[in-house]
């Protein structure tokens, strides 16, 4: 008797009633998220612009000695400026009770008070706006379920830093309202500026990551240049330290102490750099020593930048080479701006340009670091041998 033809064994993973083979869909990891990523980048771009604005206004607030003109921290009611003559008199009376008025601005008129009030009010208002833009944007994307997997915690962390920054701002201002003070403590100013650059760095990094699909990032990471990544990471850390040192210089007006270059006065070292007791105070309060440290860190940053550029120029990826070269160019420009600021005893226009130059350099370093880890891979025909 003839045997029946045997059917091929069915895989235990084969769907019942189907003989079609299932195939992976290219880009499936990002399906349905393209519009969300575009919207998230617009939101982050707006936050980035606002943070740059507040860095500028904060710098002008410091350069015009306006930071202590508002002596109370009122996160909600403080958003409304004085609207009547009586309101202005109350604000002015509060300021006249501060040490800065007594020791530096005694006899100031209400008309002279108003400009410094507006600088500080504008600075605080920008801070409120940043918090509101973050909260509305995050809530909107979250409620619409348009936040990509893994990003909720990142955005919450960013919002937490923005909130902490507001508290640090008041902690800084409060130091300048103590007896005998006419300005804020320099180390608190450095903390405040450092946090602003940390927030700016996170926004920049998230913006760059959301500009590429996850599948593209996974593929690009296989071509990551480890040594260049390490060099750019070192440059990022040293650059951040230099920003902190610059804030210490600004906090005690050390940029006006020695308007000479390359020497500090008549010598390489500042005279009597360790006069204050205890000795650690000199690193925060001695104008000559603080400016000297800032100069030396700048030289180290340039040397490291040249070393990273020499490695980066050998990258097989054109976008990475361009990004690393842009960092070196901006390093040279920023050093030039620093020298000009020192030689002319830190006039406000030179000082604020130098501060904004630090913002641009910071972003360029982060972009080059990103491309060292996630390069734009070219076709073999376009890769330079």
From TrEMBL:
Q: Which UniProt keywords apply?
A: Cell membrane, Heme biosynthesis, Iron, Membrane, Metal-binding, Oxidoreductase, Transmembrane, Transmembrane helix
* Cross-referenced InterPro entries: COX15/CtaA_fam (IPR003780), HemA_synt_rhodobact (IPR054616), HemeA_Synthase_type2 (IPR023754)
Q: What is its EC number?
A: 1.17.99.9
Q: Give the CC-aspect GO terms.
A: plasma membrane
Membrane topology category? Multi-pass membrane protein
What are the transmembrane regions? 40-60, 125-143, 155-173, 185-208, 228-252, 292-310, 322-346, 352-372
**Binding-site residues for heme, renumbered to this chain:** 294, 354
Asked if Lipid metabolism is a keyword of the record, the answer is: no
Pathways per UniProt: Porphyrin-containing compound metabolism; heme A biosynthesis; heme A from heme O: step 1/1
Q: What is the role of the protein in this entry?
A: Catalyzes the conversion of heme O to heme A by two successive hydroxylations of the methyl group at C8. The first hydroxylation forms heme I, the second hydroxylation results in an unstable dihydroxymethyl group, which spontaneously dehydrates, resulting in the formyl group of heme A.
User: Mind telling me what this protein is named?
Assistant: Heme A synthase
